[in-house]
Amino acid sequence: MSKSIVSIIAIAAASVIAVPGYAAESYTIDPAHTWPMFEVNHLGYSTQRGRFNKSSGKITLDTAAKKGSVELVIETASIDMGFDKWDEHMKSEDFFNVGLFPTMRFTSDKLVFDGDKVVAAEGYFTLLGVSKPLTLTVSNFRCAPHPMNKKQTCGADISVTIQRMQFGMSKFVPAVSDEVKISSPVEAIKD
């Protein structure tokens, strides 16, 4: 093999090695714009709603490879039902048992894409120490520079329906429905 052919092969190999690969970008969940809400049927009379005021977590995103991960941690003691007496009951052993289980969490290593948009996250939800497979529906997914802080920000709306008895939360079922609808806005800022 001639010296010039070896040189051409070496240059071609070096250029392939030097091409930057796409790497997952890391984002920190913005707790001021991420607050999970839930709704449940109450005695057949009405739909009652509550929310959690403290959440945190990380998201990794590699849109080129159509991959990513999510960790969303929700502080159960931050439950907000609208008045203190109801909040205290929801924090008790009857429901979230916040003394023993101060957090619940969703983790996912599989994001589902439709083109460049995330449309679902498949993972596990842990509540009252019980982990079950769960798929979140993701809508309104968007990443762009934030107009105020100029940092890359991703946001979406997530939703899912669970059966609370699967996690050991059975108080007052069926009067208070087993089915619980969960939704949340989520925003995360690039690290």
What is the secondary structure topology, with strand pairs?
Blueprint: H1 3-18, E1 25-29, E2 37-42, E3 46-52, E4 55-62, E5 67-75, E6 79-80, H2 84-91, E7 103-114, E8 117-127, E9 130-145, E10 152-163, E11 176-190
Antiparallel strand pairs: 1-4, 1-11, 2-3, 2-11, 3-6, 4-5, 5-7, 7-8, 8-9, 9-10, 10-11
Textual characterization of the structure:
The protein is mainly beta and 191 residues long. The chain has an eight-stranded antiparallel barrel. Strand 2 and strand 3 form a beta hairpin. The protein has two helices and eleven strands, in the order H-E-E-E-E-E-E-H-E-E-E-E-E. The protein has a single domain, classed as Lipocalin (Beta Barrel), CATH 2.40.128.
List key phrases describing it.
single chain; 191 residues; mainly beta; Lipocalin; eight-stranded antiparallel β-barrel; 2 helices
Could you write a compact summary of the structure shown?
The chain has helices at residues 3-18, 84-91, and strands spanning 25-29, 37-42, 46-52, 55-62, 67-75, 79-80, 103-114, 117-127, 130-145, 152-163, 176-190. The chain is built from 2 helices and 11 strands; from the N terminus they run αββββββαβββββ.
Task: Give the overall pLDDT as a whole number.
Answer: 90
Main beta sheet, described? 8 strands, antiparallel, barrel
Task: Identify the CATH homologous superfamily.
Answer: Lipid/polyisoprenoid-binding, YceI-like
- Summarize the helix and strand pattern as letters: HEEEEEEHEEEEE
Count structural domains.
1
Radius of gyration: 22 Å
Strand order of the largest sheet: 1-4-5-7-8-9-10-11
Shape: elongated
The tally of beta strands, per DSSP, is 11
Highest-level CATH class: Mainly Beta
Unreliable stretches (pLDDT < 50, length at least 5) are 4-21
Whole-Å distance between the termini? 49 Å
